[in-house]
Amino acid sequence: MHGIEAPSDWVRRWTHLIPASGTVLDVACGAGRHLRWLRSSNLAVVGVDRSEQALAACAGLGELVLADIENSPWPLAGRQFAGVVVTNYLWRPLLPTLVESVALGGVLIYETFAAGNETVGRPSRPDFLLQPGELMLACAGLRVVAYEDGFIDHPGRFVQRIAAVREHPRSAAPVRYPLAACG
Questions:
Q1: Distance (Å, rounded) from C-alpha 159 to C-alpha 76?
Q2: Are 21 and 82 in contact (CB under 8 A)?
Q3: Is the pLDDT of residue 107 over 90?
Q4: What predicted TM-score, i.e. pTM, was given to this entire model?
Q5: Considering only CA atoms, which of 163, 164, 113, 125 is closest in space to residue 141?
Q6: Which end of the chain has fewer CB atoms surrounding its CB within 10 Å, N or C?
Q7: What average pLDDT does range 44-71 have in this prediction?
Q8: What is the pLDDT of residues 111-159, one digit of tens each?
Q9: Phi/psi at 44 (nearest 5 deg)?
Q10: DSSP letter string over 9-41?
Q11: Beta-bridge mates of residue 159
């Protein structure tokens, strides 16, 4: 079942950008690998997934929403989150909604498969692979703190990943976003 493996190194690396007092949304959360990681970081969590079985594995972690987000209205309309986490999931029509779901001062942490992955495995359909720079374009209204587009070993795959913040209106001093190493 998706979601029982270790949390993504990318998510672990950028979790420190999520405001401690906020709630984090995990989109297509599966069995909760990132919900567990975020809860262990003392963050309140909301997980959304279409699988009742996957959400059952997340019982007790936080608010759980059973929804088919590809064929039904967005179940969290009007809500914003201190963090929005998405991994190994792409539904292009939802990208603007996910970006809008990031609250002022919040962060979007997104990692999914990119063009080129069809040469090494699944997914291989263009519908499930980001094109070069596509994630950057989707996050045009956010400040990009980190972005990668390329090949990763173990397991071998092509990915795009981003950590992007919805900044407060500019103050006199620039905001410092620490570049933490994955530990």
A1: 27
A2: yes
A3: yes
A4: 0.89
A5: 164
A6: C
A7: 96
A8: 987 766 566 778 667 777 778 888 999 999 899 999 988 788 878 787 8
A9: -75, 145
A10: HHHHHHGGGS-TTSEEEEET-TT-HHHHHHHHT
A11: 113, 150
Please give the Cα distance from 46 to 41 (Å, whole number).
14
**Which residue in this structure is represented by tokens 């984090």?**
24
Residue 37: CB atoms within 10 A of its CB come to: 20
What whole-number distance in Å separates Cα of residue 46 and Cα of residue 150?
A: 30
Token code pair at residue 67: 């929804």
Provide the residue type at 9 as one letter: D
Lowest mean pLDDT among 73-77, 101-105, 113-117, 149-153: 113-117
Q: Minimal CA–CA distance to 128: which of 89, 74, 87? A: 89
- The angle formed by the CA atoms of residues 29, 17 and 7, to the nearest 5 degrees, is 35
Other Cβ atoms less than 10 A from the Cβ of 42: the count is 7
Tokens of residue 144, six digits: 């990009």
CA distances from 64 to 2, 49, 153 (A): 16, 8, 32
Share above pLDDT 70 across residues of the chain, in percent, rounded to a whole number? 86
Distance (Å, whole) CA 70 – CA 28: 11
Q: What is the mean pLDDT of the chain?
A: 88
Q: Is 103 exposed, middle or buried (0-12, 13-18, 19+ CB in 10 A)?
A: middle
Residue at token pair 């913040």: 165
